[in-house]
Amino acid sequence: MNQFNSIAVNQITGFLMGNLVLNGDSYKYSHWPQYPADTTELFSYIEARGTTTGAKETMVTGMQPFIKQYLSVRITHADVDVAKKIIEAHGEPFNEAGWRRIVDVHGGYLPVRIRTVKEGTVVPVSNAIVTCESTDPELAWVESFIETALLRAIWYPTTVATNSFHCKRLIMKALQKSSDDPEGEILFKLHDFGARGVSSLESAAIGGAAHLINFMGTDTVSGILHTMQYYDADYTATGFSIPAAEHSTITSWGRANEFAAYANMVEQYAKPGKIFAIVSDSYDIFNAVEEHFINGGLLAKVKERGATVVIRPDSGDPTRVPVQIIELLCNKYGFTMNSKGYKVLPPEVRVIQGDGITPRSLETILENLLLNGYSASNIAFGMGGGLLQMVNRDTYKFAMKCSAAKVAGKWVDVFKDPITDHGKVSKKGRVTLVQHRETKEFRTMRIDELEAGNHVSSWYDATDLNSPWQDAMVTVYENGPVESAYVTFAEVRAEANKYL
Fold first, then answer.
1. N or C end of the chain: smaller count of CB under 10 Å?
2. pTM above the 0.85 mark?
3. Domains in the chain, start-ordered, CATH in brackets?
4. Residue 461 pLDDT greater than 80, yes or no
């Protein structure tokens, strides 16, 4: 550490992760002299270029926490001191004068304007959902520098929220066909089991919060904390869980005492109006359901106490086992027929499938249930790695691309058009996202075309009510946070609900 001279080790480590000057890919530090010398402005956009999941839209979220946690912290000369030493030792050039200007002239805030759609908005892929442009002619390169952090802030929570929303649509479709109360059931039909399966606590918080836009069931406590910290969420109305067994709390009783383990769960948690879950496949789930829960009287006791037990299989073919369990319960314990002609278990028992759930397996389970005459009311789902971890930037092919530069006082298009991969063709010019006032169609348009055609009164504030198009983006950062653009978690949920 002697290369840091008088800077103490604890100061260095304290600056590292919170230092915005160090929040970039290595090669970004070499880019500032690579643009034409008379470049005064740069403009970029973020889009999901496609899909690998079948979902052709993305639910946008994640910008507000990024602004509050990173862009709201002013860069200091001490940050620049540390970054200079680290980056030069790392082998990259460092634009010390440029970063000093950010501190001295801009008060430590990045001289950029960031615009995005409202969080919770569902936008078809291949549309701009974020734009970023430089505002200081001497520091045009800053706009490109933050690509790494800005893109990362958007793609992960948006991908999780999108997959969660895709599942919500699949479940809602099944409920609307087979349930008497789709709206009353939907919010607790997909439970987040992903906290242990992600790469970090921060990932659990970000992904867990993204899921909570769509559902209210979660075991990821950090997701609730994230909504409280960055969206002023009411923790009493954000996410909920229930008491539940794991294999160790059942198998520690021994196989000979399996019934006693289940009976203990009933004794502890079967209270009036309460719900609890028991993992029941430590040995033989079909035997457990028939011999212990039905013949052994445990379901009768749960009913007597006015509670609901959720039986959880955790092995076998996830597309078949839960359907077989519901069939067994209906045949041996009973059911009612709802107004839509589907079988529904008595209210004291339900099933949750939390193993092997992906959007595809979830859809298959629902299809198998309905095909055999069972309502989707009988089942809930838990999703872990498939929700928070089995995603990457290419799930929806996210990219941030520079699309325009002002060189020698004139705007020029900046784009790529590779002959080998047309999926990576980028957009040209300064663009924004607009929405049709009547049809609600989204469309990415060039700002110069909007201005020339008088479609909107100005590219950043579409107030011309005579135009069929309105700007769908809002400015959330302009040389500093735009706090008036902050939203609550309730507002994000309300926006998302418009698209269900």
1. N
2. yes
3. 2-158+393-497 (3.20.140.10), 160-388 (3.20.20.70)
4. no
